[in-house]
């Protein structure tokens, strides 16, 4: 039975990883999406009256921060970050980080996400663009000029420890650690960053997970038959 417990713990982790891989594939075309992975770890469980068991656990998620492909859109409110960093947006639940830079201008002149969340500047204040602006220019460092007048700088923020990033939704993150402005940000205007999911690699991983799961299932079925046979022999 000990081997069955070990196999079951592995099966549970494979199911969790399959869900993550499926979600990555579903978001392969989502702008600013960051692929997720699962970290398998080992832990020892005490078994009363029996030797301890070495089992696996797959509960820790990691996020790939690899750069996605930048695509020119021509949209005057489209922005992408080249290199490290995130845009910061103001949400009802608090400030959140994102790489999805498809923004628009609200009726009040605020630069907002598609969900209506205000984009923040390098000082943590909302980015304002006059509704009657005729031309918008953005420097490579995120400095924003409207009709030739400098208005501010689009904020680009980094986290001290990427492991503290907690995903919320498809493209937003909550940072549980320190957040600081990136010293030399690179903002690309009229471009959007695509998902960093490698769809082919993810499909290949899905096949590997499925095969590993089927192998474990076959072992459990064989173990069940062995136990049933032993019980029948004892009852004779």
| Helix/strand/pairing category | alpha+beta
Order of helices and strands: HEEEEEEEEEEEEEEEEEEH
Helical percentage: 25-40%
Describe the strand arrangement of the main beta sheet, using strand numbers: 9-5-6-15-14
Oligomer category = single chain
Gap between N and C termini, in Å? 22 Å
Q: Based on CA inertia axes, which overall geometry fits? A: elongated
Percent in strands = 25-35%
What is the averaged pLDDT score? 86
Question: Helix count, per DSSP?
Answer: 2
Biggest sheet details: 5 strands, antiparallel
Q: Could you explain how this protein is built, in words?
A:
- There is one protein chain.
- The chain is of the alpha+beta class and 236 residues long.
- The chain contains two helices and 18 strands.
- It has helices at 2-26, 199-235, and strands at residues 36-47, 50-63, 70-72, 79-81, 87-91, 94-98, 104-105, 111-112, 118-119, 136-138, 143-146, 149-153, 157-159, 165-168, 172-175, 179-181, 187-189, 191-193.
- The strands form seven sheets. The protein has a five-stranded antiparallel sheet, with no helix packed on it. The chain has a three-stranded antiparallel sheet with strand order 10-11-12, with no helix packed on it. Strands 1-2 form a two-stranded antiparallel sheet.
- The two termini are 22 Å apart.
């Amino acid at each position: 039975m000990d081997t069955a417990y070990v196999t079951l713990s592995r099966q549970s982790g494979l199911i969790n990883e399959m869900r993550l891989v499926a979600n990555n594939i579903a978001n392969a075309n989502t702008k600013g999406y960051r692929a997720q992975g699962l970290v398998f770890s080992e832990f020892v469980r005490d078994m009363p009256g029996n030797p301890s068991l070495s089992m696996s656990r797959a509960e820790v998620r990691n996020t790939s921060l690899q750069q996605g492909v930048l695509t020119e859109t021509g949209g005057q409110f489209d922005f992408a970050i080249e290199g490290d960093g995130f845009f910061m947006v103001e949400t009802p639940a608090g400030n959140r980080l994102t790489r999805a830079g498809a923004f628009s201008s609200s009726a009040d002149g605020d630069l907002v996400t598609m969900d209506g969340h205000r984009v923040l500047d390098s000082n943590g204040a909302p980015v304002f663009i006059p509704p009657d602006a005729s031309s918008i220019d953005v420097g490579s460092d995120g400095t924003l000029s409207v009709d030739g007048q400098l208005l501010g700088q689009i904020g680009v923020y980094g986290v001290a420890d990427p492991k503290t990033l907690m995903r919320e939704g498809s493209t937003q993150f909550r940072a549980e650690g320190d957040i600081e402005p990136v010293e030399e940000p690179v903002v690309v205007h009229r471009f959007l960053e695509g998902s960093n999911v490698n769809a082919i690699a993810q499909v290949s991983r899905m096949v590997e997970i499925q095969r590993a799961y089927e192998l474990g299932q076959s072992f459990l079925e064989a173990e069940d038959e062995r136990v049933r046979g032993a019980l029948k022999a004892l009852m004779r």
